[in-house]
Design brief:
The protein is an alpha/beta fold. The protein is built from 20 helices and 30 strands. It folds into four domains: 139 residues, Immunoglobulin-like (Sandwich); 317 residues, 7-stranded beta/alpha barrel (Alpha-Beta Barrel); 67 residues; 101 residues, Immunoglobulin-like, CATH 2.60.40.10. The strands form seven sheets. Strands 3, 4, 5, 7 and 8 form a five-stranded antiparallel beta sheet that branches.
Length: 801
C-alpha cells in the first residue's frame, strides 16, 4: 500500500537534519578506515572468521533490549533501557561500552516495517549518540558470557523534537585483537513513540480479546441421570489453572477496555468441569476429573472481568467458515450445522456469564475473505464480518476506518493487519516481547498522525495467544489506553462508525485467497463424514423416549468437528470425527435383534418368537419388527409373506415378539427378521434363520398310535368283564326262580317263624334285581340271548343257566 511520505508535525528542522547526518558520518569514519585496512591486518585463522562475521548483517556481539520503560514517554519522564550483551565471537572484546542512539523520526508505517526487519543489522541506519554519562562500560566481554546493562536517561536529554516515532538503538562498541579500533560490534534497534501532549484528534481503537480453545469434550456422556460428561483429555484444566494460558487471558484482560470475543464451547466445557466429569486416558479408560474448584474459580473471575464490557459470541465451536465455504457447501446439511451453532451461542453465553452477547459478528481465519466466505458467514444471520486489511486492501495514503459496506446489508469490519500481527511469533524472550510492544505502539501512533481526521481502528490478534503473547498484548494495550493519541471503543461502535467513502468495498476474488490458508482447510471428506454421522443420528433419535440425552451432546460434538482449531491438526481432526461416529454406532447397536438358530415346526401352524434387546439406559419406541418368509409357498407368516408388529422396549430390557406361522409343505424355509422405524427406514442389522417344517413326524405318529391301541385294549377288556358279570348274574337268577317254585309254600309258611332267613333271601333277590333285571347302563353291552319267561317251566323242560 502506498502511504504518505510525511505528515503534519513529523519532520525535523533542516539544521537539525544536517547535524545528524554529520554525526552519522563521523561515527562511521573509524569503521570505514578499519574496512580499508582489513586485508593487511588480517593474517589468518581466527581473524579470518571475525572478518566474515563483520561482513554479515549482525555483529559478533548480540544486544538484547529486555525492557524499555516507559514504553511511550512524556516530558519529564526518565527512560530506562535494560538488557544484556553477549559476545558470540571467539575473541575477547575490550574497551566495550553500550550507548543509546536516537535516529530521525519514521514518517511512514512501511518505514517501521523496514526497520523492524533490520533491527540488528550493522549496516542499517544509525542515529545520534546520547553519550556523556549515559553510557555503560565493560572492561572486557568474554566469549559466550552475557553481561547485563541498564541505562537511564531523562527524556529531555534524548533531544526528541515533534510528535512521532523515533528510532532508538542500543549499540555495543569495542575492540578485538584482530580489529584494534573502536567500532560497533552489535546493535539492537527499537521504536520510541513520542506524543507528550494530548492529541487534538484521537484514534478510536477496538482491541479484540479472544477466549478460544480447541475441542476437549467428546459426545460421550455417563448413563446416569446427570449424564456425566466425558473429556478427551485434561488439557483444558491446565489452560484454566493458575498461570495457564486461559487463566492469564482472563487475569490480564481484567481492567483493560477490550471487546471479549468468546467461543461458547469453551464456556460450556469449563462449566461442565464444575460438576462431576470423567477424563479419558490414552488406553481408553476413564477416570474421575478432579479440577472442579479450578473451573469454578476461572468462571467466577471471567464473570467479574466481563461485567460492563462488550462480549461478542462466535458460533458454538468456532466453525471454520472458509473450510465450510470452500469444501462443505456442496455437502447436504453442512450449513444447517452453522445455523445450529449460531443459535446455541447466545443462550450458552447468557446462561454461564449472565451477560447478553452480540451474535452479529463472524471471524474467518486470519480475516481472509472471498465472496463464498462472506456468503457462508452471513447465512446463519450474522451481518458483520471481521476481516483484515491484508485481505480487503486499500490503495490509499492513509489507513481508513474499519467499517465499510460490502453489499447485501453486510458490513466488513477491517482490522489493521500490522497491529493485529504485531504479537505473532515466539515472545518467550523478554527482548522479543519488548520489541513487539514498541512496534505495536509505533504503528498506532504513526497511523494516528497520518491525517487530522478521526478514524476507528480494530485490532484482531491471533485466536489463541500464548501466555507470553498475551502478556505482551496486555502491556501494549495498557500503554495505549494511558497514552495521548488513542481512546478505546467497543466492536459494535466500530462497526457502526461512518465508513470512509474512499475505502475499498470490493471483496477479493477466490483466487486471491492465500494458498497457505487453503492448505490447512478441512477437506470435503470431513463434511461428508459429519453428514453421515448426522444421518445416523436422525434415524436413531426417532426411536428414543428421551431424545435430548443423545441429540444435544452429539449436536454440539458435530459443531466441534467443524472447529477452526483443527487447522494444522489434520490427523487429530480425523481421530475426533472417527471417535464421534464410532460412539454413535455403539449406541445404535445397543438396540438390536437377538440371533436365532434353526427353528423346527411340527404341524401345520406354530408360533415363532423373535427377541429385541435394548441395552440403552432409556426406553425405545416407534419401532416395527417385520418377520418375512423367503418361501411363502412353504411357510406363511401371519397369513402372508410377512407380518409387522410394533415394538416398545424399556431401557436395559429385552422384549419377545411372537409371530403366528402356517406351513403348507415340509422342508426348510428361510426367514428374515428386520427392525424398521415408523417411517419405513431399516434399523440395525437383520437376523436370518431357517425354519424346518415337518407336518407330522414319525415320533409323533408312533406316540399317537400307541395311545389309540391302549384305548382299544382297555375298551375290549371292559367289554369282556361286563359280559361275564352279566352272564353270572343271569345264572343266579334262574337258580333262584327254580328254588322258589319248589319251596314256595313252605317258604311262605316259614317266613314269619324265620325272619333272618327271609331277610337273607330278600337281600339276594334285591341284589339280583339290581343286576340282570336292573336298568340298562349306557356302557353295558347289548344282551346276546332272548328274554327269559317268568312262568313255571313245563315237565321235563331244560332251563339254560
Amino acid at each position: 500500500m502506498a502511504e504518505a511520505a510525511d505528515f503534519q508535525g513529523a519532520s525535523a528542522s533542516p539544521a537539525r537534519r544536517l547535524l545528524r547526518r554529520t554525526g552519522a558520518l563521523l561515527a562511521g569514519a573509524p569503521l570505514l578506515a578499519g574496512l580499508l585496512q582489513l586485508p593487511a591486518a588480517t593474517p589468518a585463522g581466527a581473524a579470518g572468521q571475525e572478518s566474515l562475521q563483520a561482513a554479515s548483517s549482525a555483529g559478533p556481539v548480540s544486544v538484547a533490549v529486555d525492557s524499555l520503560s516507559p514504553s511511550a514517554p512524556s516530558e519529564g519522564d526518565t527512560v530506562t533501557v535494560s538488557g544484556t550483551v553477549t559476545n558470540n565471537g571467539k575473541q575477547t572484546v575490550t574497551g566495550a561500552h553500550v550507548d543509546l542512539q536516537v535516529g530521525p523520526p519514521l514518517e511512514t508505517r512501511s518505514a517501521i516495517d523496514t526497520l523492524a526487519k533490520k533491527s540488528d543489522d550493522l549496516q542499517g541506519p544509525s542515529g545520534e549518540k546520547v553519550g556523556g554519562k549515559y553510557t555503560e562500560k565493560f572492561s572486557a566481554l568474554t566469549p559466550g558470557v552475557a553481561e547485563p546493562f541498564s541505562i537511564s536517561v531523562p527524556a529531555d536529554k534524548l533531544d526528541l523534537g515533534s510528535d512521532g516515532v523515533y528510532q532508538l538503538a542500543v549499540a555495543l562498541s569495542g575492540k578485538t585483537a584482530a580489529q584494534p579500533w573502536d567500532q560497533v560490534l552489535g546493535i539492537q534497534r527499537t521504536f520510541l513513540p513520542w506524543q507528550p501532549a494530548e492529541a487534538g484528534t484521537k484514534t478510536k481503537t477496538t482491541f479484540l480479546w479472544p477466549l478460544v480453545s480447541s475441542a476437549h469434550m467428546a459426545a460421550e456422556t455417563g448413563s446416569n441421570e446427570q449424564q456425566t460428561p466425558v473429556f478427551r483429555d485434561d488439557e483444558l484444566a491446565e489452560e484454566i489453572a493458575p498461570g495457564g494460558r486461559l487463566d492469564q487471558m482472563v487475569s490480564l484482560g481484567k481492567g483493560l477496555d477490550v471487546t471479549w470475543v468468546v467461543d461458547p464451547d469453551l464456556l460450556a466445557s469449563v462449566d461442565a468441569m464444575t460438576g462431576s466429569y470423567q477424563v479419558r486416558s490414552a488406553d481408553g479408560s476413564t477416570t474421575p476429573g478432579k479440577n472442579q474448584e479450578i473451573a469454578k474459580h476461572w468462571l467466577a473471575e471471567l464473570q467479574q472481568a466481563v461485567t460492563g464490557e462488550e462480549v461478542a459470541a462466535l458460533p458454538f465451536g468456532d466453525p471454520d467458515l472458509a473450510s465450510l465455504a470452500h469444501n462443505g457447501t456442496s455437502v447436504t446439511g453442512s450449513l444447517s450445522h452453522l445455523k445450529e451453532a449460531t443459535d446455541a451461542a447466545e443462550e450458552t453465553v447468557d446462561t454461564i456469564l449472565h451477560v447478553k452477547p452480540s451474535t452479529d459478528f463472524v471471524w474467518p481465519v486470519d480475516g481472509a475473505v472471498d465472496p463464498s466466505i462472506v456468503k457462508v458467514a452471513t447465512s446463519a444471520g450474522a451481518d458483520k464480518v471481521i476481516t483484515r486489511s491484508d485481505s480487503l486492501q486499500d490503495d490509499l495514503s492513509y489507513t481508513p476506518s474499519a467499517a465499510r459496506p460490502i453489499g447485501a446489508g453486510t458490513t466488513a469490519v477491517v482490522a489493521d493487519s500490522r497491529m493485529s500481527t504485531a504479537f505473532h511469533g515466539d515472545l518467550t524472550k523478554a527482548s522479543s516481547s519488548t520489541l513487539a510492544v514498541q512496534r505495536f505502539l509505533a504503528q498506532s501512533l504513526t497511523l494516528g498522525l497520518q491525517t487530522s481526521k478521526q478514524r476507528s481502528v480494530v485490532v484482531a490478534p491471533q485466536r489463541m495467544p500464548s501466555v507470553s503473547q498475551a502478556q505482551a498484548m496486555a502491556e501494549a494495550l495498557a500503554t495505549l489506553q494511558d497514552g495521548n493519541w488513542s481512546e478505546s471503543q467497543d466492536l459494535t461502535a466500530a462497526a457502526k462508525a461512518k465508513p470512509d467513502p474512499a475505502a475499498n468495498t470490493k471483496v477479493p476474488s477466490a483466487s486471491a485467497y492465500p494458498s497457505s490458508l487453503r492448505k490447512q482447510e478441512l477437506p470435503r471428506a470431513a463434511f461428508e463424514q459429519i453428514a453421515r454421522t448426522q444421518g445416523k443420528l436422525d434415524k436413531f433419535r426417532v426411536i428414543l423416549t428421551r431424545q435430548s440425552r443423545v441429540v444435544t451432546p452429539f449436536g454440539r460434538a458435530m459443531n466441534r468437528e467443524m472447529s477452526t482449531s483443527w487447522r494444522g491438526r489434520g490427523i487429530a481432526a480425523v481421530g475426533y470425527r472417527d471417535g464421534i461416529e464410532s460412539y454413535l454406532n455403539g449406541l445404535i447397536d445397543g438396540v438390536k435383534l437377538i440371533q436365532k438358530s434353526e427353528t423346527k415346526l411340527s404341524g401345520r401352524s406354530a408360533t415363532i418368537p423373535v427377541t429385541v434387546q435394548n441395552n440403552l439406559v432409556q426406553g425405545v419406541e416407534h419401532l416395527e419388527l417385520r418377520l418375512t418368509s423367503k418361501n411363502p409357498t412353504r411357510l406363511k407368516i401371519g397369513g402372508d409373506a410377512y407380518e409387522e408388529q410394533p415394538v416398545t422396549v424399556n431401557g436395559g430390557h429385552a422384549q419377545s415378539v411372537k409371530f403366528t406361522t402356517s406351513a403348507n409343505a415340509n422342508g426348510r424355509a428361510e426367514v428374515v427378521a428386520q427392525l424398521y422405524t415408523e417411517d419405513g427406514q431399516k434399523y440395525g442389522a437383520p437376523v436370518t434363520f431357517d425354519v424346518k417344517v415337518t407336518e407330522v413326524t414319525p415320533t409323533v405318529m408312533l406316540v399317537i398310535g400307541g395311545g389309540v391301541l391302549l384305548l382299544v385294549l382297555a375298551g375290549f377288556r371292559m367289554y369282556t368283564q361286563r359280559k361275564r358279570a352279566a352272564a353270572r348274574e343271569a345264572s343266579e337268577d334262574d337258580i333262584a326262580e327254580a328254588d322258589g317254585e319248589i319251596d314256595g309254600p313252605q317258604s311262605q309258611i316259614d317266613t314269619p317263624q324265620n325272619p333272618e332267613a327271609s331277610g337273607v333271601r330278600l337281600k339276594e333277590e334285591s341284589d339280583a334285581g339290581s343286576g340282570a333285571d336292573g336298568p340298562e347302563q349306557p356302557s353295558d353291552p347289548s344282551p346276546d340271548t332272548a328274554a327269559e319267561s317268568a312262568d313255571p317251566s313245563g315237565t321235563g323242560e331244560r332251563v339254560d343257566r
